[in-house]
Amino acid sequence: MRDTSARMLALLSLLQARPDWPGPELAERLGVGVRTIRNDIARLRELGYPVDAATGRAGHYRLGVGASLPPLLLDDEEAVAVAIGLRAATGLAGVRETGARALAKLERVLPARLRRTVTALAEATAAGPENTGTDAPDPEVDPALLTALAGAIRDRTAIRVGTAEGPARVLEPYRLVSWQRRWYLVVREPRTDGWRVQRVDGLDLRTPGGGRFTPVDPPEDLTDLVLREVAATGWSVHARILVDAPAAAVLARINPAVGVVEPRDAHRSVLVTGADSHATVAAYVGMLPFDFHVDGPPELVEHVRVLGERYRRAVPS
């Protein structure tokens, strides 16, 4: 027997296929009993789909007003969750327009009761600025590129990626990871058996792609791999900052994904971190509750100096 959601979706599709359906015929088509059909019809009505019923020997079920709506079997919580997710997508560079279109379509096909719930949520809430962790603009990512990469991961098909150094490389894609408003692709390079993290917004995908590949077990959790690699090499700028605190104390104050802490001695450690700009690093390190020392790169030294003077002028002498 089909699971309940799949069966109800099939039931609604049958009801849309022709005007009238006797209950026993629906039951036979779906491989269930007449009582189950009655229960499913009641559930459809609870979800807001108009289903009329005629009793007697010629009894049948028929979709009422609103029958042209496509089937979308979402309860209140599911509808709200999808709407919130789509609204969040409208803040991502590269998918703002498509996210807004999808949200508009969702609101049109929801039954009236759920549409009112989602509309109320939209009218009662407002969104603040999304990208407050950096002064760098969000990179644009083509939704078609994300779709192509997801399909290659699903089908276990290698991709060909262009390089400035020479011929395109053949890579095996394993996982897309979205983090800090960026998209990353985890790939395995079959020639070296090495695992790499690629920024999707800078990916030059060539066609045709590579052939099918047999997946191998990754060396670690792929999301953890992305966080570690980005912290080590994936930012636009990097810095080594001497902190007047032991490594354990610094680690307790930062997210491990944003930096690596190296012990220097019992009282000092080195924070290896990065960001999209030196200004972001300067602001971030200032939030640590420890004294620190910056001797490079020169751009970071200047940003820290300017911030220090600005903070000094902000308080009474």
UniProtKB/TrEMBL annotation:
<dbReference type="InterPro" id="IPR026881">
    <property type="entry name" value="WYL_dom"/>
</dbReference>
<dbReference type="Pfam" id="PF08279">
    <property type="entry name" value="HTH_11"/>
</dbReference>
<dbReference type="InterPro" id="IPR036390">
    <property type="entry name" value="WH_DNA-bd_sf"/>
</dbReference>
<dbReference type="Pfam" id="PF13280">
    <property type="entry name" value="WYL"/>
</dbReference>
<feature type="domain" description="WYL">
    <location>
        <begin position="145"/>
        <end position="201"/>
    </location>
</feature>
<dbReference type="InterPro" id="IPR028349">
    <property type="entry name" value="PafC-like"/>
</dbReference>
<dbReference type="InterPro" id="IPR036388">
    <property type="entry name" value="WH-like_DNA-bd_sf"/>
</dbReference>
<feature type="domain" description="Helix-turn-helix type 11">
    <location>
        <begin position="7"/>
        <end position="61"/>
    </location>
</feature>
<dbReference type="InterPro" id="IPR057727">
    <property type="entry name" value="WCX_dom"/>
</dbReference>
<dbReference type="InterPro" id="IPR051534">
    <property type="entry name" value="CBASS_pafABC_assoc_protein"/>
</dbReference>
<dbReference type="Pfam" id="PF25583">
    <property type="entry name" value="WCX"/>
</dbReference>
<dbReference type="InterPro" id="IPR013196">
    <property type="entry name" value="HTH_11"/>
</dbReference>
<protein>
    <submittedName>
        <fullName>YafY family protein</fullName>
    </submittedName>
</protein>
<feature type="domain" description="WCX">
    <location>
        <begin position="236"/>
        <end position="310"/>
    </location>
</feature>
